[in-house]
Amino acid sequence: MADAIRLDGKVAIITGGAGGIGFATAQLMTMRGARVVIADIAAERALELAATLEGAIALPLDLEREDSITAMVADTIAQCGRLDILVNNAALLGPDIAQNDGNVEYMATALWDRTYATNVRGTMIACRAALPHLAAEGGNIVNTVSNLALQGHLIQAAYSSSKAAIIQMTRSIAASHGKAGVRCNAVAPGMTVTPALLEAFPPPLRQCVEDETLRDQLGGPEDIAEAIAFLSSPAARNITGQVLVSDGGCSSHVPGIAGFKAFFEG
Predict the structure, then answer these.
(1) Is 50 helix (H, G, I), strand (E, B) or coil?
(2) Where are the alpha helices (DSSP H) in 186-256?
(3) Cβ contacts of 57 within 8 Å, gap of 6 or more
(4) Are the beta carbons of 159 and 119 closer than 8 angstroms?
C-alpha cells in the first residue's frame, strides 16, 4: 500500500474544475498520475487551465442542463476511453447568489429552486450518467458538500440545505452501488480561501469564521484537494458512505469558543 494514494492510469472528471478547489484538485490528481477532465461553465478558462496539465482535457458544463451533464460523461468516455473518478465539485455559489441566500423568511422561491436544480439535481444527473462507467472500472464518486450542511446558520439556507441533500445522496449511492464496486463519499470544507470566497464574503465575515477555526488560518484549496484525492485513491478503499469534514476544526467545538478564549486569556 506504499503507493496507495497514487492515481496512475485513472481518468477523473472534476466539475467546477476551473475554480479554486476544482483546479487545485485537478493539479494534485495530475501529479499523482491521473488524467483529468476539467468540466466547467467557464469553458474558456477551463481550456486555458487544462493546457497547463499533462493529458488534461476541458469540457463545457452547465449543471442546470441535463443534456450538458450527460454530454460531459459521454465525451469523457469518447476521448479518454474510461471513467474512474467523478468529483462533483461545481455548485451555484457566487457573490450575487451569496448576497441573496439568507434565511428562509426572506428566501426568494426562484433562488431556492435554482440552487436545488443546480446543486442537487445536477449532481444526481452526473452520478446517474457516470455510475455504469464507474462500476465497470471499480471507480468512485466524491461529492464536495460543506460543513454548513451539518450545522445551522443565519445565512445560506438554500446552499446549506442543498448540500445536506447531497450528503444523503452520497449515502444512498454508497449503499446501492457498493456491491457493484463503486464507492461514494463526500468532503465537507469549511470556509476556504478561494477567489470566489474573497469576492463573496467581506473581511469581517471571514474573520468571524477564522476566529472559530482551530488552526491559525483558514484552509486553502490545496487542503480540500488533498481530502478529495485521498478519498478517490485506493488508500481509501475501505471508506464509503462517509463525510470527511475539512474545516480546520471549526465545526468540532462548542459555539463561541473564540469569545471564551479571549475571556480566559484577557
Answers:
(1) helix
(2) 195-200, 203-212, 221-232
(3) 35, 36, 37, 38, 50, 76, 79, 80
(4) yes
CA–CA separation, 176 and 80 (whole Å): 26
- The predicted pLDDT at position 1 comes to 58
The answer to whether 140 touches 183, Cβ cutoff 8 Å, is yes
How far is residue 142's CA from residue 73's CA, in Å, rounded to a whole number? 15
Spans in the chain with pLDDT lower than 50: none
Q: What pLDDT is attached to residue 181?
A: 98
The contacts of residue 106 (CB under 8 Å, 6+ apart) are none
pLDDT at residue number 198:
84
174-192 pLDDT, tens digit per residue, is 999 999 999 999 999 999 9
* Catalytic residue IDs: 159
**Residue 149 contacts residue 166 (beta carbons within 8 Å):** yes
Would you list the DSSP string of 55-117?
T-EEEE--TT-HHHHHHHHHHHHHHHS---EEEE------HHHHHH---GGG--HHHHHHHHI
Model pLDDT for residues 42-80, shown as the tens digit of each residue: 999 999 999 999 999 999 999 999 999 999 999 999 999
Contact 182, 134 (CB under 8 A): yes
- Whether 63 and 118 have beta carbons less than 8 Å apart is answered as yes
Q: 0.90 exceeded by the pTM? A: yes
Task: Give, in order, the Cα–Cα distances in Å from 178 to each of 111, 135, 182, 240.
Answer: 34, 9, 5, 8
